[in-house]
Write a structure and sequence with these properties.
Blueprint: E1 4-8, H1 10-15, E2 16-26, H2 30-37, E3 41-42, E4 47-50, E5 56-59, E6 62-63, E7 80-83, H3 86-96, E8 101-110, E9 116-125, H4 128-152
Antiparallel strand pairs: 1-8, 2-7, 2-9, 3-6, 4-5, 5-7, 8-9
Length: about 150
């Protein structure tokens, strides 16, 4: 059984250069897990941050209400604790002190064991001209692929 991807943050690849990525577990309530299994999540404005107690928190990630929940309805935009080893968190603290780096959620998925995971990317912001350059490169790659496909027929 392969991993089941719940949602991706496509905008992150447009707005940031992703330098490295890592996997982290999430502390979720029951209705939130059910909502994730239904695919009701949005990563668009989300980010991760290390709080004053040294814990990694996921902020601004929208996980919708589960409609069939009978108790404890979750708040969609609440901050959620991420699970990483202390050594990994210490490494992140050092890297995040560099100017211009941020932790961005790239995707939420369920692994082979059925656990909800989030893939975090250590990202550096793109300038407007970088975004334009990326779009031009993608368009030229698409066009080249189209020409190659038409020549194979």
């Amino acid at each position: 059984m392969a991993e089941k991807i719940v949602c991706r943050n496509k905008k992150a690849f447009h707005d940031y250069f992703i330098e490295s990525s890592m996997e982290a577990g999430m502390v979720l309530s029951g209705p939130e897990v059910k909502s994730l299994r239904a695919g009701k999540a949005n990563l668009r404005d989300g980010y991760a941050q290390i709080d004053d107690r040294g814990e990694l928190m996921l902020l601004n990630v929208h996980i919708s209400f589960y409609t069939f929940a009978t108790h404890n309805p979750n708040e969609p935009l609440r901050s959620r604790k991420l699970l990483l080893h202390k050594t990994e968190i210490r490494k992140l603290i050092g890297k995040l002190k560099e100017k211009g780096l941020a932790l961005i959620p790239l995707k939420i998925y369920f692994n082979e064991k059925g656990k909800a995971k989030v893939e975090l990317g250590l990202a550096r912001g793109k300038k407007l001209y970088d975004k334009r350059e990326t779009l031009k490169k993608q368009q030229s790659d698409r066009e080249l692929e189209r020409v190659v496909r038409s020549n194979q027929r």
